[in-house]
Protein backbone atom coordinates (compact mmCIF):
# COMPACT_ATOMS: atom_id res chain seq x y z
CA UNK A 1 0.00 0.00 0.00
CA UNK A 2 1.17 3.49 -0.75
CA UNK A 3 0.25 6.55 1.26
CA UNK A 4 -1.28 9.52 -0.55
CA UNK A 5 1.07 11.79 1.39
CA UNK A 6 4.31 10.21 2.71
CA UNK A 7 4.36 12.79 5.52
CA UNK A 8 1.12 11.52 7.00
CA UNK A 9 1.61 9.08 9.90
CA UNK A 10 0.25 5.59 9.47
CA UNK A 11 -2.80 4.87 11.67
CA UNK A 12 -2.05 2.90 14.81
CA UNK A 13 -5.23 0.81 14.40
CA UNK A 14 -6.64 -0.49 11.11
CA UNK A 15 -9.55 1.57 9.86
CA UNK A 16 -12.84 -0.37 9.86
CA UNK A 17 -14.44 -0.36 6.44
CA UNK A 18 -17.75 -1.64 7.82
CA UNK A 19 -19.41 -0.58 11.12
CA UNK A 20 -20.78 -4.09 11.70
CA UNK A 21 -19.45 -7.54 10.97
CA UNK A 22 -21.46 -10.70 10.60
CA UNK A 23 -19.99 -14.01 11.63
CA UNK A 24 -19.82 -16.29 8.61
CA UNK A 25 -20.30 -20.03 8.77
CA UNK A 26 -18.47 -22.57 6.68
CA UNK A 27 -20.67 -24.88 4.64
CA UNK A 28 -19.35 -27.72 2.48
CA UNK A 29 -21.11 -28.10 -0.87
CA UNK A 30 -20.14 -31.43 -2.36
CA UNK A 31 -23.44 -32.67 -3.74
CA UNK A 32 -26.74 -31.52 -5.21
CA UNK A 33 -28.50 -32.24 -1.90
CA UNK A 34 -25.93 -30.20 0.04
CA UNK A 35 -26.45 -27.26 -2.32
CA UNK A 36 -30.23 -27.57 -1.93
CA UNK A 37 -29.91 -27.51 1.87
CA UNK A 38 -27.64 -24.47 1.69
CA UNK A 39 -30.06 -22.66 -0.62
CA UNK A 40 -32.96 -23.35 1.78
CA UNK A 41 -30.90 -22.10 4.71
CA UNK A 42 -29.90 -18.92 2.87
CA UNK A 43 -33.51 -18.19 1.83
CA UNK A 44 -34.69 -18.65 5.41
CA UNK A 45 -31.94 -16.36 6.73
CA UNK A 46 -32.72 -13.69 4.14
CA UNK A 47 -36.43 -13.89 4.92
CA UNK A 48 -35.72 -13.43 8.66
CA UNK A 49 -33.35 -10.54 7.95
CA UNK A 50 -35.94 -8.82 5.74
CA UNK A 51 -38.63 -9.26 8.41
CA UNK A 52 -36.35 -7.80 11.08
CA UNK A 53 -35.48 -4.84 8.88
CA UNK A 54 -39.17 -4.13 8.23
CA UNK A 55 -39.82 -4.28 11.98
CA UNK A 56 -36.98 -1.82 12.63
CA UNK A 57 -38.36 0.49 9.93
CA UNK A 58 -41.82 0.27 11.51
CA UNK A 59 -40.33 1.08 14.92
CA UNK A 60 -38.66 4.20 13.54
CA UNK A 61 -41.89 5.17 11.76
CA UNK A 62 -43.82 4.84 15.03
CA UNK A 63 -41.41 7.26 16.67
CA UNK A 64 -41.79 9.72 13.81
CA UNK A 65 -45.59 9.55 14.10
CA UNK A 66 -45.48 10.32 17.83
CA UNK A 67 -43.07 13.21 17.33
CA UNK A 68 -45.19 14.63 14.50
CA UNK A 69 -47.98 15.30 17.05
CA UNK A 70 -50.62 14.73 14.41
CA UNK A 71 -52.62 11.62 15.30
CA UNK A 72 -54.45 9.92 18.14
CA UNK A 73 -53.07 6.49 19.02
CA UNK A 74 -55.55 3.81 20.10
CA UNK A 75 -54.44 0.70 21.99
CA UNK A 76 -57.11 -2.02 21.98
CA UNK A 77 -57.41 -5.20 24.02
CA UNK A 78 -60.17 -7.82 24.16
CA UNK A 79 -60.64 -10.58 26.71
CA UNK A 80 -62.48 -13.67 25.47
CA UNK A 81 -63.93 -16.54 27.49
CA UNK A 82 -61.09 -19.03 27.92
CA UNK A 83 -63.33 -22.05 27.20
CA UNK A 84 -64.97 -20.52 24.11
CA UNK A 85 -63.07 -17.77 22.30
CA UNK A 86 -66.15 -16.81 20.31
CA UNK A 87 -67.55 -15.26 23.52
CA UNK A 88 -66.18 -11.79 24.24
CA UNK A 89 -66.26 -10.80 27.92
CA UNK A 90 -64.45 -7.45 27.93
CA UNK A 91 -63.14 -4.77 25.63
CA UNK A 92 -60.84 -1.96 26.63
CA UNK A 93 -58.97 0.76 24.82
CA UNK A 94 -56.54 3.52 25.66
CA UNK A 95 -56.30 6.71 23.61
CA UNK A 96 -53.20 8.91 23.46
CA UNK A 97 -53.65 12.29 21.77
CA UNK A 98 -50.15 13.24 20.64
CA UNK A 99 -51.20 16.84 19.98
CA UNK A 100 -52.24 17.50 23.58
CA UNK A 101 -50.18 14.75 25.29
CA UNK A 102 -53.33 13.43 26.98
CA UNK A 103 -54.50 9.88 27.72
CA UNK A 104 -58.00 8.42 28.06
CA UNK A 105 -58.91 4.87 29.09
CA UNK A 106 -62.16 2.95 28.59
CA UNK A 107 -63.28 -0.45 29.88
CA UNK A 108 -66.54 -2.22 29.01
CA UNK A 109 -67.88 -5.51 30.39
CA UNK A 110 -70.42 -7.51 28.39
CA UNK A 111 -73.44 -8.00 30.65
CA UNK A 112 -74.77 -10.88 28.52
CA UNK A 113 -71.98 -13.04 29.92
CA UNK A 114 -71.86 -11.65 33.44
CA UNK A 115 -72.06 -15.20 34.77
CA UNK A 116 -68.95 -16.38 32.89
CA UNK A 117 -65.50 -15.97 34.41
CA UNK A 118 -61.98 -16.99 33.47
CA UNK A 119 -59.51 -18.37 35.96
CA UNK A 120 -58.55 -21.81 34.73
CA UNK A 121 -56.02 -20.78 32.07
CA UNK A 122 -55.79 -17.01 32.60
CA UNK A 123 -56.56 -15.04 35.73
CA UNK A 124 -59.97 -13.43 36.17
CA UNK A 125 -59.34 -9.70 36.64
CA UNK A 126 -62.36 -8.19 34.92
CA UNK A 127 -63.55 -6.34 38.05
CA UNK A 128 -60.14 -4.80 38.73
CA UNK A 129 -59.90 -1.98 36.19
CA UNK A 130 -57.42 0.50 37.65
CA UNK A 131 -57.71 3.52 35.33
CA UNK A 132 -61.34 4.59 35.44
CA UNK A 133 -64.82 3.20 35.85
CA UNK A 134 -65.88 -0.06 34.23
CA UNK A 135 -69.20 -0.05 32.38
CA UNK A 136 -71.58 -3.02 32.09
CA UNK A 137 -73.43 -3.04 28.77
CA UNK A 138 -74.15 -5.14 25.71
CA UNK A 139 -71.37 -5.98 23.26
CA UNK A 140 -73.10 -3.87 20.61
CA UNK A 141 -73.10 -0.83 22.90
CA UNK A 142 -69.43 -1.33 23.77
CA UNK A 143 -68.54 -1.49 20.08
CA UNK A 144 -70.60 1.65 19.43
CA UNK A 145 -68.56 3.48 22.08
CA UNK A 146 -65.32 2.34 20.45
CA UNK A 147 -66.64 3.49 17.10
CA UNK A 148 -67.52 6.92 18.55
CA UNK A 149 -63.94 7.41 19.72
CA UNK A 150 -62.51 6.31 16.37
CA UNK A 151 -64.95 8.61 14.54
CA UNK A 152 -63.66 11.46 16.70
CA UNK A 153 -60.09 10.57 15.70
CA UNK A 154 -61.00 10.62 12.01
CA UNK A 155 -62.90 13.92 12.31
CA UNK A 156 -59.96 15.57 14.07
CA UNK A 157 -57.00 14.06 12.24
CA UNK A 158 -58.28 12.22 9.18
CA UNK A 159 -57.17 8.86 10.57
CA UNK A 160 -56.07 6.86 13.59
CA UNK A 161 -53.10 4.70 14.62
CA UNK A 162 -53.80 1.30 16.19
CA UNK A 163 -51.54 -0.09 18.91
CA UNK A 164 -51.59 -3.58 20.39
CA UNK A 165 -49.51 -6.42 21.76
CA UNK A 166 -50.26 -9.25 19.37
CA UNK A 167 -53.07 -7.15 17.92
CA UNK A 168 -53.94 -9.65 15.20
CA UNK A 169 -56.07 -11.75 17.57
CA UNK A 170 -58.01 -8.67 18.75
CA UNK A 171 -58.64 -7.64 15.15
CA UNK A 172 -60.01 -11.11 14.40
CA UNK A 173 -62.37 -10.84 17.38
CA UNK A 174 -63.65 -7.49 16.08
CA UNK A 175 -64.06 -8.85 12.56
CA UNK A 176 -66.15 -11.78 13.83
CA UNK A 177 -68.26 -9.29 15.81
CA UNK A 178 -68.77 -7.41 12.49
CA UNK A 179 -67.26 -4.21 13.87
CA UNK A 180 -67.40 -1.41 11.29
CA UNK A 181 -64.22 0.67 11.05
CA UNK A 182 -64.70 4.32 9.99
CA UNK A 183 -63.63 5.19 6.47
CA UNK A 184 -61.10 7.88 5.66
CA UNK A 185 -63.65 10.28 4.22
CA UNK A 186 -65.60 10.27 7.48
CA UNK A 187 -68.62 8.56 5.91
CA UNK A 188 -69.56 4.90 6.02
CA UNK A 189 -67.63 2.00 7.44
CA UNK A 190 -65.83 -1.19 6.45
CA UNK A 191 -65.25 -4.57 8.06
CA UNK A 192 -61.67 -4.59 6.74
CA UNK A 193 -59.48 -2.43 8.97
CA UNK A 194 -56.93 -2.06 6.15
CA UNK A 195 -59.60 -0.35 4.01
CA UNK A 196 -60.50 2.11 6.79
CA UNK A 197 -59.05 5.41 7.95
CA UNK A 198 -56.22 3.43 9.55
CA UNK A 199 -52.84 5.16 9.30
CA UNK A 200 -50.79 2.18 10.46
CA UNK A 201 -50.69 -0.63 13.03
CA UNK A 202 -48.02 -0.66 15.75
CA UNK A 203 -47.55 -4.08 17.34
CA UNK A 204 -45.55 -3.67 20.53
CA UNK A 205 -44.40 -7.30 20.47
CA UNK A 206 -42.73 -6.70 17.10
CA UNK A 207 -41.46 -3.29 18.23
CA UNK A 208 -39.76 -4.88 21.23
CA UNK A 209 -38.26 -7.59 19.01
CA UNK A 210 -36.94 -4.91 16.66
CA UNK A 211 -35.38 -3.03 19.59
CA UNK A 212 -33.33 -6.11 20.55
CA UNK A 213 -32.86 -7.36 16.95
CA UNK A 214 -34.65 -10.62 17.71
CA UNK A 215 -38.21 -11.33 16.57
CA UNK A 216 -38.16 -14.98 17.63
CA UNK A 217 -40.70 -15.96 20.31
CA UNK A 218 -41.75 -12.46 21.46
CA UNK A 219 -42.50 -12.31 25.21
CA UNK A 220 -45.99 -11.76 26.57
CA UNK A 221 -47.24 -8.31 27.51
CA UNK A 222 -46.47 -8.87 31.20
CA UNK A 223 -42.99 -10.24 30.48
CA UNK A 224 -42.16 -7.36 28.14
CA UNK A 225 -43.30 -4.80 30.70
CA UNK A 226 -41.07 -6.50 33.26
CA UNK A 227 -38.08 -6.49 30.90
CA UNK A 228 -38.45 -2.72 30.48
CA UNK A 229 -38.99 -2.10 34.19
CA UNK A 230 -42.62 -0.99 33.89
CA UNK A 231 -44.67 -1.87 36.98
CA UNK A 232 -48.07 -3.39 36.23
CA UNK A 233 -50.95 -4.95 38.13
CA UNK A 234 -54.05 -7.00 37.28
CA UNK A 235 -53.22 -7.90 33.70
CA UNK A 236 -55.85 -9.86 31.73
CA UNK A 237 -58.26 -7.03 32.42
CA UNK A 238 -58.97 -5.56 28.98
CA UNK A 239 -58.82 -1.96 30.20
CA UNK A 240 -55.61 -2.47 32.15
CA UNK A 241 -53.96 -4.36 29.28
CA UNK A 242 -54.82 -1.57 26.84
CA UNK A 243 -53.40 1.04 29.24
CA UNK A 244 -50.17 -0.88 29.82
CA UNK A 245 -49.81 -1.60 26.11
CA UNK A 246 -49.88 2.14 25.47
CA UNK A 247 -47.28 2.68 28.21
CA UNK A 248 -45.12 -0.04 26.63
CA UNK A 249 -45.51 1.61 23.23
CA UNK A 250 -44.33 4.98 24.56
CA UNK A 251 -41.43 3.39 26.45
CA UNK A 252 -40.24 1.62 23.30
CA UNK A 253 -40.35 4.94 21.43
CA UNK A 254 -38.22 6.54 24.16
CA UNK A 255 -35.79 3.62 24.06
CA UNK A 256 -35.19 4.12 20.35
CA UNK A 257 -34.87 7.90 20.73
CA UNK A 258 -32.18 7.43 23.40
CA UNK A 259 -30.08 5.05 21.33
From TrEMBL:
The lineage of its organism: Eukaryota, Fungi, Fungi incertae sedis, Mucoromycota, Mucoromycotina. Keywords: Coiled coil. The keyword Mitochondrion does not apply. Gene3D superfamilies: Ribonuclease H-like superfamily/Ribonuclease H. One of its GO terms (cellular component) is nucleus. It comes from the Eukaryota. Residues 35-62 form a coiled coil. Residues 72-251 form the Gfd2/YDR514C-like C-terminal domain. GO terms for molecular function: nucleic acid binding. This is Gfd2/YDR514C-like C-terminal domain-containing protein. The keyword Coiled coil applies. Pfam families: DEDDh_C.
Amino acid sequence: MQRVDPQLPAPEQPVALCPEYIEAQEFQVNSRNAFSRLLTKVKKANKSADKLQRAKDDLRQAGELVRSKRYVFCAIDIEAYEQDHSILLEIGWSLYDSKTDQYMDQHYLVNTYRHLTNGRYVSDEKLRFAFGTSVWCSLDQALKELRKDLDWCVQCDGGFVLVGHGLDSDLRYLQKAKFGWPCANGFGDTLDVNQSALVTICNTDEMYGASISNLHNPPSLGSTLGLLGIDCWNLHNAGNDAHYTMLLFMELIKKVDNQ
